# Entry
Amino acid sequence: MKYNEMKDKGKRELMSGLVLLAGFIVWTVLIRHIDVQRAGPGGTEIGFASFNVWFHRMTGVHISIYTITDWLGLVPIFICMGFGLLGLVQWIKRRSLLRVDPDILLLGVYYLVVIFAYLLFEMVPINYRPILIEGNLEASYPSSTTLLVLSVMPTLKFQADRKAVSSVLRKATTIFVIVFSSFMVVGRLISGVHWATDIIGSVLLSSGLFMIYRFMADYFDTRTPNPKPEASDGV
# Structure
């Protein structure tokens, strides 16, 4: 890809990321002010109450789906660990942290930002779950599992597209990411352990953060004197 094309692509990615993050902020504010009712467990307040309650009654509660998606939430965690191991191996082999691939270093920072976002909303609850989990009232916005999945799984595809030599591996990774992510989002949505607006918030936040990460990775590509060649179709 030519320099100007990469620069234009980066601008689009940055703009998309900023728009999505702005959308998340606006969405969060609206949840705190639009149709707020005491419709949650113990009279907890929720925004967009009429819509949320209607959707929750329509889908019902499915603890088995909640449990499955909870356990499958370990998959993106293992992926994070895998990229962390990759960065560590590069650091050891190249004997300098600064010689680790920039996109891998940025990935570590990106994952830390995602963790910070999760912790922030655990400390400052916007919504509580529509049901008690083991008798406890837990923060629900944004859906942490959805946030984790949609923040991490796209990075697996992104890195595979950049680093995998085999076209078969790249295509298989794309299919896996799409199927797994779709299952997790739909599963979390219909499990009944989140309000529908919690899932929407996670989609906006994770998509915005990922687009910013893509922009940063592509930006460092344009700053590299000899950018890596595109992955070939070899196996």
